[in-house]
Every structure is written in structure tokens, then in C-alpha cells.
């Protein structure tokens, strides 16, 4: 299922959620708000990923979902915004030269790392220092703009500090505002 939020029909951002992190959750909701503020139309994918423990099978499924969403667009500019599982679509962004924002990218998955290393399009990475999928040295080595939130978990929250979690959302929103405004 997809939801569409209208802005400029020639600029469309496609939101690829996580396995259990929907477009209604704070990070993706704020991404939509920032994109709309900058005039982008936003297509939110609402999905139920295959129930398999095989991450490569899930990657194939995510890539298929991303390709179908991109190919359904007639916009001149398309951007991908993905959270966790959605970052498995990084090869789609890299191959098509699409700008991207990746929240908590799966930096342990070789296709994600290879795609991020190969991309020539503007790409923003956002991760948490306490997240198992984030590798700060690898993120730095990729040479892409990175925002790392110290101690933040995979939801970019600090479980023992709700105020710090809210502050993380402010930092992320500022980062997104600067990135999207610079495109």
C-alpha cells in the first residue's frame, strides 16, 4: 500500500520503511514533513516484508518494491528515504543516481555497503552509536555525510533518557532540513 502527499509533481521522495518501523513513526514522519516543506511530493510505502529469516531474500524483495515504486513515477527527480530494512534498496539509488537518506542503514550487509561506496548522488547517512547495524568507522570510510547520535539505538532513541531521544529528533530534523534544502 502507498500513501501520497502532494508537493511538486516533478520531485518525488519515496519512503521505504523498516521491517517494523512504519512511515507514521517519528523519523519517517519528520522526513516527510521536511520534504514537504521543501516542496517535494512524498510517496510512503506501507509494507509487510516477507516473514523469512533470510536477509538476502528480504533484500531481493525490498529492491523489487523500490524498483516498482521508482518506475511508477514520472517525476524528473526521485529520491529514496529508507529506514533499516529499507536501506537494502541502496543499490537501486546507486545504480540510478538517485539522492538518498538512509536512517540506520544495515552497514553489515555487503550490498548496502557496496552501493553506498559506489553512489555518486547526494546521500545522507544517519545512525546511532548504540545500534548494532551502525559501524562508525565504516560510515566515515564511505565518505558520505553522516550524522551519528551517540548512544542511540536502532530507533535512534536513548531508551533510558526520553529527553535525549527527543533531542535526537531535533538533530535529525535539522540535518534533514540542511540536506534536502541543499539538493
TrEMBL record:
Domain of life assignment: Bacteria
Name the record gives this protein: Alpha/beta hydrolase
Organism: Catellatospora methionotrophica
